[in-house]
Design brief:
3 domains, seven-stranded mixed beta sheet, single chain, 643 residues, alpha/beta, Aconitase, domain 4, Aconitase, domain 3
Length: 643
């Protein structure tokens, strides 16, 4: 029986298998940006273990707020800048940087068969190169920087085959949104989505990265595409310059590999799609929302800000020959400094400027409502970004996700508009005719590998005392409460964890008179798929700051659940029947016995719910988090000569 690419990558990086089946994996890459890395640095310093396992394998950059918009964001950038210099870590500063998930492959910082992590949920993008790349919380990022290790639970592998003739006006963004609608926003939780079929094989690397980028919106740990000549052409220049022989095809899934699930999608009859409401899984044909007035169009992000995306959007403006509608703002954001230069050389920026677009330097800014295109309450934005959660690009605003071609035609018409076959075909051809060859190019870095002594570090790190998880309960029945609602993005420039608690669930549907109850509770009872969205560990920190140490729900998003346990906090999964009973009667007090695995409450009848924790989760609860545990594992592996 053959193996999947995921299985092969695990086998090549496996250091240890824990008692509950989790894999301790050696990392090829750890990437960091200014939003989630500073707190990892501060925590490591506080613990006395501010070391780097291998400076050549750690890369940092400014990307979310670029350049700094205020003092707080400037402080974050300075922290990463100074720390990187101190440890000999290559850092991409303002002017040579870009959105992380575009700049990483540009520089060849990912190879087939690699494993990489980052404190950013869309790290799954890099699976487009047949790699295992995953978003993690700040604590897991900190552990990765210190030890070069990552703990990954066993994953299902879902194979998705796209076949048929692709209509000219249907693009990668339409395909991934169609898949998310089919799977649901948690349909691939604790799974890797392997994309394949003739449609994927015909795609450019840019389009493949659009697909893998949004795998997390279906709950997936990573997306993955097999290596072919398209991959080789993209990576070959940087691979040749490294002088390191690489088996590019060896990690591809075997022809007789067995998958946990196989999904077949015939693209022949698909039409351009767009999201409605506030979920990436709430997807409809563009025609369903046709003629809806809009206020802003945003073309950019780690999903659709690459050179191919800009070529397509520019082709629409050239074809239609019109300006941006007078009632609309159109913001165009090249994903990296290199994409900006190439778009400038190809005349794309001139096309946008003449059409009345605002062209920005590379930044994540507006995608998460931090800068450079935030919308006002009541405004509507058609965006090529990846999330349309409530308040994502601005409190009270509505975001509709679509392809760059749909976004561009909408900007011209001033209302949501489906691109015609002829317009889309022209845009495709325009990109082909005007493109200039652009291959990855690596940056130089200093060779400073000094392996830390993990036994000595372990001596100075101690676990915290286990605290009780019983207490008063607060009830939030909404499903899919995301990390943007738990802690709004506008507070992410804070580095003082105590600040986050004051704003916990600020944008959630909680009546003002009920908010004091939240801050006097220790347990949060929530709806399904709690904590979806970003990898930001600020969400658990906000809950702790509000007094919450335990969240009870019928299901959790993968990264949020990991972040809770990594901080010594408790996520309890109960059956939907028990959850319904709790919401129906709302008992004031809930007793939690995490060691025996049950909760009890009187509401007014006696209710008992059972749950189970893995051995690793129990260890994290006992030790007040995961740092001490992982240092012990690293010390043991080092003694065995495996690190």
């Amino acid at each position: 029986m053959g193996k999947t690419a995921f299985q092969k990558i695990i086998d090549a990086h496996l250091k240890q298998t824990l008692s509950d089946g989790r894999f301790v994996l050696g990392l090829d890459w750890v990437w960091g940006h200014e939003i989630t890395t500073p707190n990892a640095v501060l925590d490591a310093r506080l613990r006395g273990c501010d070391v780097v396992f291998d400076p050549q394998k750690v890369k940092t950059m400014i990307d979310h707020v670029n350049p700094a918009k205020d003092t707080a964001s400037a402080v974050q950038g300075k922290m990463v800048r100074d720390w990187s210099k101190e440890h000999g870590v290559e850092f991409l500063d303002v002017g040579r940087n870009g959105v992380c998930h575009a700049v990483i492959p540009e520089n060849g910082w990912i190879r087939p068969g690699n494993i990489g992590i980052m404190g950013d949920s869309h790290t799954c993008t890099h699976g487009a190169f047949c790699a295992l790349a995953a978003g993690v919380g700040t604590t897991e990022l900190e552990i990765g920087i210190i030890t070069g290790l990552w703990v990954c639970p066993p994953q299902k592998v879902i194979r998705v085959n796209f076949s048929g003739k692709l209509p000219a006006n249907v693009f990668a963004k339409d395909l991934i949104l169609t898949l998310i609608k089919q799977l649901g926003v948690k349909g691939a939780t604790n799974a890797v989505i392997e994309f394949g079929g003739p449609v994927i094989r015909a795609m450019s690397m840019e389009a493949r990265m659009t697909m893998t980028n949004m795998a997390v919106e279906a709950g997936a740990t990573s997306g993955m595409v097999m290596v072919d000549q398209t991959t080789v052409r993209y990576l070959l220049p940087v691979i040749n310059s490294s002088g390191v022989p690489v088996d590019l095809f060896g990690f591809n899934s075997d022809p007789d590999a067995v998958y946990d699930q196989v999904v077949e999608i015939d693209v022949s009859k698909l039409t351009p799609v767009i999201t409605q409401n506030t979920s990436p899984g709430d997807v409809v044909s563009v025609n369903v929302l046709a003629n809806k007035p809009i206020n802003q169009v945003y073309i950019g992000s780690c999903t659709n800000g690459r050179i191919e995306d800009l070529r397509l959007a520019a082709g629409v403006f050239v074809r239609i020959g019109n300006m941006v509608h007078s009632d609309v703002r159109c913001v165009v954001v090249p994903a990296t400094q290199r994409v900006y230069r190439q778009a400038l050389a190809e005349g794309l920026l001139e096309v946008f400027a003449r059409a009345g677009c605002y062209v920005s330097g590379p930044t994540c800014g507006a995608c998460l409502g931090m800068s450079c295109g935030v919308i006002a309450p009541g405004e509507v934005c058609v965006s090529t970004t990846n999330r349309n959660f409530p308040g994502r690009m601005g409190v009270g605003g509505m975001v509709h996700l679509a392809s760059p071609v749909t976004a561009a035609i909408t900007a011209i018409m001033g209302k949501i508009t489906e691109p015609s076959i002829s317009t889309a075909a022209f845009a495709r051809d325009y990109g082909r005719r005007n493109r200039m060859k652009a291959a990855p190019t690596g940056w130089s870095y200093e060779d400073r590998v000094i392996c830390p002594d993990y036994s000595k570090l372990l001596e100075v790190v101690r676990g915290e005392e286990v605290k009780t998880f019983s207490g008063r309960a607060f009830y939030l029945p909404d499903a899919n409460v995301d990390t943007d609602q738990i802690i709004p993005a506008k507070y992410l420039t804070e580095t003082d964890k105590s600040v986050f608690g004051k704003h916990c669930l600020e944008d959630a549907k909680i009546a003002s008179e009920d908010r004091p109850k939240l801050f006097s509770s220790q347990i949060l009872v929530a709806g399904d798929n709690f904590g979806c969205g970003s990898s930001r560990e600020h969400a658990p920190w906000a809950l702790v700051g509000a007094g919450i140490r335990c969240v009870i729900a019928s299901s959790f998003a993968r990264i949020f659940e990991n972040n809770m346990f990594a901080n010594g906090l408790l996520c309890i999964v109960l059956s939907q029947d028990i959850i319904r009973k709790l919401f129906l009667d709302k008992p004031e007090e809930i007793l939690v016995d995490w060691e025996k695995g049950y909760v009890t409450a009187i509401c007014p009848m006696f209710v008992k719910g059972t749950f189970s924790l893995s051995d690793y989760q129990r260890e994290m609860i006992k030790n007040g988090g995961s740092v001490g545990i992982m240092l012990k594992i690293a010390a043991d592996l080092q003694k065995q000569g495996k690190l």
